[in-house]
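> forwarded from #structure-qc
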């Protein structure tokens, strides 16, 4: 079978791209002919072809371009016919849905949409960001109306997808690379690189965005430091909103370490370094880093929102959304137990 997998940014920092990568490689191992179509990419998939369609370099213009992608008639004219001979198209995110929608309409190719979730627009502080997200949801809704199959990555995602589009979906949890994420990984090189010594470390991995609640995590960290002064916080991920990132850095000191980019190969070593994996995210329909950290033997602490109750294991702790005092207390207790205090 010829399968086209469509994903906007086939990049290491993107959770949906990592899911698409494993999906492509699994299909290829089964003997299928797989091609990944992406607007940008820095991942090299095994046994699958990769076609990079291109988009602006600037982060701001990338976001604008993704919204107005259907109006790029030249790109549609060039790339739509290349989907004609595929048996199945799987789209992982708007704006790639646009090509899948047209291929289903004109070429009758089976179209599957893989829903990873969309942040609630109200979680963004700026009006233009809220408007952007509402338009994004609107365009997603109208480019999935002719799907043959819809898949959500959790029951929380299923409910959100139904709310946004009116379409029912089946649930398939994200697959993870068990050869890459497991217990017993040595993180000593990362400790040396960041001069961490033997200091306790809490970690967040993900997009630096308002809905990820990184500002709340910094507040939590400052509360924990009142009792554990040598604690370090590593915030690792791509900065999606420059003004938000600048605000975070202004309220941070040298004990908060920002790592703007981690290669996919190095992510497990960062999990190995941390004592606790933490996230104050306010909207999640899966949360891949939590599961990866747990596979590496780490306890996760998170707000009880979205899919967190579906993926947190028996060692993890769920906290009432927004309660940073309880969040800090839970982390402090875990760290003191670990340190034998």
């Amino acid at each position: 079978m010829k399968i086209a997998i469509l994903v906007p940014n086939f990049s290491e920092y993107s959770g949906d791209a990592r899911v698409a990568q494993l999906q492509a490689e699994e299909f290829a191992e089964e003997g299928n002919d797989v091609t990944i179509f992406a607007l940008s990419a820095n991942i090299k998939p095994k046994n699958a072809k990769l076609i990079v369609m291109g988009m602006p370099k600037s982060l701001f213009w990338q976001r604008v371009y993704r919204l107005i992608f259907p109006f790029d008639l030249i790109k549609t004219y060039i790339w739509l016919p290349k989907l004609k001979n595929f048996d199945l198209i799987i789209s992982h995110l708007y704006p790639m849905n646009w090509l899948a929608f047209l291929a289903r309409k004109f070429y009758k190719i089976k179209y599957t949409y893989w829903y990873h979730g969309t942040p609630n627009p109200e979680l963004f502080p700026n009006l233009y960001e809220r408007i952007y997200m509402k338009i994004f949801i609107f365009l997603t809704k109208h480019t999935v109306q002719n799907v043959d199959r819809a898949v959500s990555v959790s029951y929380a995602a299923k409910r959100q997808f139904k709310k946004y589009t009116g379409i029912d979906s089946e649930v398939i949890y994200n697959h993870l690379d068990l050869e890459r994420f497991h217990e017993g990984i040595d993180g000593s090189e990362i400790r040396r690189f960041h001069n961490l010594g033997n200091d306790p470390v809490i970690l967040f991995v993900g997009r630096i965005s308002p809905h990820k609640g990184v500002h709340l995590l910094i507040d939590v960290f400052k509360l924990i430091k009142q009792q554990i002064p040598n604690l370090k916080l590593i915030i690792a991920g791509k900065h999606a909103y420059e003004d938000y990132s600048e605000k975070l850095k202004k309220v941070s000191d040298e004990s908060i370490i920002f790592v703007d980019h981690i290669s996919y190969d190095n992510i497990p070593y960062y999990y190995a370094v941390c004592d606790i994996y933490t996230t104050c995210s306010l909207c999640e329909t899966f949360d891949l880093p939590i599961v990866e950290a747990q596979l590496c033997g780490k306890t996760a602490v998170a707000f009880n929102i979205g899919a967190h109750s579906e993926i947190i294991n028996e060692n993890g702790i769920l906290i009432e959304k927004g309660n940073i005092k309880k969040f800090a207390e839970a982390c402090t207790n875990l760290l003191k137990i670990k340190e034998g205090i």
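QC bot note: The chain has a mean pLDDT of 95. The first strand starts at residue 2 and ends at 6.
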